[in-house]
Amino acid sequence: MVAGDGRSVDEEFAGLSKSRQRALEENGLGLPELRRIAAEEGGERRVRHILAEYAPSTSRWDFQGDRWAGGGSAVGPWMRLLLVSVVSVVVCLLSTYVINKYALFVGAVCGLAVVWALLRTPLSRAGLVVRCLVGAAYVVLIWAGSQSADAWYLHVRGQEATVTYATPVNQGSHGVRTPYCRVKLPDGSVRQTFRNDKRCTDADSAGSKTDAVIDPSGHYRPVLGDTSDIGGDVAGYVSVGAAAILVLAPLTAAYMGRRNETRGGRADRAGGASA
Is the pTM of this model over 0.70? Predict the structure, then answer.
C-alpha cells in the first residue's frame, strides 16, 4: 500500500511527529484505519490527502509547532500574550503620572507576566521569532515610555499658551551649579520647564514673553515652544514601531495558527468522509 512518493502508508505515518500521530489516532485515523482506507479503490489518494493535512508545515511560518495536535487552540496563547503585554505597557505608562521615570521599575515587574505569557506560546521556529519581536518591543516601550510619557501626554493634551520668562533658578549637583529655566504661566504660577532654551537661563530675559505648551491639569511641567516641538524625535518613531510590532506580531501568529487549525478541521472531515 503506497501513499505517495513511493513510500508506504506505514512509512508516511512513521514520518509524522508523535503529537500528530496521536491527533490522527484520536480522530479515528490511526495506522490500521489508514491501511484499510488505502486498500480500497482510490483509497491511496485519500490517504495522501489526509497525511498531507497532518504533515509538518513546510512553511517557515508555522505558528503552532508540536502543540498543533492535542495541545489546545494555537490562537489562545497568542491572544493572551497580546493582552498581557498591552496591559503591562499601559500600566507602566499610567504609573509615570505618579512616579515619573521610576515607572521603568513598574514595567520591569509587569515584564514578569509578559515573560510568563511568552513561554506559554506554541513552540516553533516562527513562534520563536514572534517571541523575540514582542519581547524586544516591550522593552523598548517601557524604556521610552517611562522617559517620555510626559512629553507624549503634552503633545496630545497640552495647550499652547504665552508665558513669561521668570528668573532662572540655580541648582547644584556634585559641586556644579546649573541654571534651570522657569516661566510664569497665565494663571500666575511659576513653574520650572522641562528643558532650557538659549534665552531662559539669561537673567536679562526675565519678563519677556515666549510660547510654551502647558498641562491644563497643572501636573506636568511646561515645555517651551509649540506642540510641533514635542515629539518627532528618533525615540518617538521607534516607540511607534515597537507598539505596532507588539500588537501585530501576536495577531499575525494567532491568524496563522487559526488557519492551520482550519486545515486540521478539513482533514478531520476528509477522514470522516472516507470512513
Answer: no
